[in-house]
Amino acid sequence: MAHESKSNGQKVFDLSNYNEKYSDEQKIYSGTWVPCRICKQIFLRVRLTLRFCRTCGRAFCEGEHGSFTGRGPGVCVRCYKTRGGELR
Ligand SMILES: [Zn+2]
Ligand SMILES: [Zn+2]
């Protein structure tokens, strides 16, 4: 399936599923908003974000499903738990 970006007049966003070849990290770096993967998978809701996890390359929503230091990519709650709750 071809990569597809849409615009609502303000932000460019991409609601397609996570793509290994074109990760959320890459999308976000190109200025595209993507849905929090955890919200989408667990709650079936779309919450657009520009935050992504450095470990798995997936987008997360700030505060609820990951943390962002303000100095670079953060970590999602899934990877945070995998690492034993240690933020680096
Ligand atoms: Zn979320
Ligand atoms: Zn992650």
Q: Helical amount among residues, as a percent range?
A: 10-25%
Given as residue ranges, the uncertain stretches (5+ residues, pLDDT < 50) are none
Tally of DSSP β-strands: 6
Query: For the residues shown, what is the average pLDDT?
Result: 86
SSE order in H/E notation?
EEHEHEEEH
The number of helices is 3
CA gyration radius, whole angstroms = 13 Å
N-end to C-end Cα span: 35 Å
**Major beta sheet summary:** 4 strands, mixed
Estimate the global geometry from the Cα principal axes.
globular
Please describe the structure with a list of short key phrases separated by commas or semicolons:
4-stranded mixed sheet, binds zinc ion, two-stranded antiparallel ribbon, alpha+beta, single chain, 88 residues, globular
Write up this protein:
This protein has helices at 24-29, 37-43, 77-82; strands spanning 6-7, 12-13, 32-35, 48-49, 66-67, 75-76. A four-stranded mixed beta sheet has the order 1-2-3-4. It has a two-stranded antiparallel ribbon with strand order 5-6. The protein has three helices and six strands; from the N terminus they run E-E-H-E-H-E-E-E-H. It has 88 residues and is of the alpha+beta class. The model has no long low-confidence stretch (mean pLDDT 86). The site of one zinc ion (ZN) has 8 residues, from strand 6 and helix 3. One zinc ion is lined by residues 53, 55-56, 58, 75-76, 78-79.
List the helices and strands and how they pair.
Blueprint (H helix, E strand, L loop, with lengths): L5 E2 L4 E2 L10 H6 L2 E4 L1 H7 L4 E2 L16 E2 L7 E2 H6 L6
Parallel strand pairs: 2-3
Antiparallel strand pairs: 1-2, 3-4, 5-6
The structure holds zinc ion (ZN) (2 copies).
One zinc ion (ZN) binds next to helix 2.
